[in-house]
Design brief:
Shape: elongated
Mean pLDDT: 77
Number of helices: 5
Length: 88
């Protein structure tokens, strides 16, 4: 039930599960304490966000090369410099 409560707080549950959680909360008012705790923790975590962090240098190139290298159909070992040509 803990995962459902977290999903409920974040608003990511499907309608049927949301209804079940709401029924559970109505039947078990003591659980509201847990829901409030999850909400407070979430607010605390989100307020710690220091802002947008830029991606590391070369991330796009490394990602594309890794995709090419791990592709079963790839004829380009280690990307064969494809990423450098794409992002040049």
């Amino acid at each position: 039930m803990r995962e459902e409560l977290v999903g409920y707080v974040f608003g990511v549950l499907d309608p049927d599960t949301t209804n079940l959680v709401e029924q559970y909360l109505q039947s078990n008012p003591e659980i509201h304490t847990h829901v409030d705790c999850i909400r407070r923790c979430t607010v605390d975590l989100l307020s710690c966000d220091g802002g947008h962090l830029p991606p590391p240098d070369g991330l796009a190139i490394r990602t594309v090369e890794r995709c090419f290298a791990s592709s079963a159909n790839s004829t380009h070992p280690e990307g064969d410099g494809v990423a450098q040509r794409l992002f040049a």
